[in-house]
What does this fold into?
Amino acid sequence: MGGMIKAGVILGVLVEIWTAVVIGAGWHKDPAMLMMFFLVIPLQITVIVMALKGTAAESPYMRQLVNGLVLSGVAGAVVFVGSYLLTTVVFPHYFDEIRVAGAELLAKAGKNPAEVAAEMKKNESMYDPIQNSLTGFIGTEITGLVVSAVAAIFLRKK
It folds into this structure.
C-alpha cells in the first residue's frame, strides 16, 4: 500500500505543477488554451497504470481496484490542498481573471450586459477556492475509479 500512497503523492504534485504552468502561462484566460489543463487526465491514467502494473502479480481484481482508489484518494487530497493554495496564495487574482475572461467571452458571443451579468451570477459558485478545490478532488476520484476499474481487468493476478 505504501507504493500507492507514494504514487498518489507523485500524481497530486504533478497535477499541481501542471496547474501552476497553465495559470502562470495565462492559459486559464484563453478558452482555446484552457483545454491544456485537461492533460492531467492522461497523466493520471499513466500514473495509475504504472502503479497497478507494479502490484499486478500479487493482486486480484478487487485489490487492484482498491490500490487505484487509494492512489487517487491521496492524489485528490494533494490536489485539494494544492488547488486551494494556488488560487489563494500563489495566484490570488486567479478567480478575478477568469471572471473577466468569462464576461468577455459572453459579450463576444453576443450577450447583452444584462445577460452577461445574469450568466456570471449563475456561475458564481465556480469562483470559490473551496468549491474549485473540491471539484478537483472529486474529478481526481472519479477518473481514478474509472481508470482503476478498467486497468485492474488487465493488470491483476489471474
Observations:
- The chain has a mean pLDDT of 92.
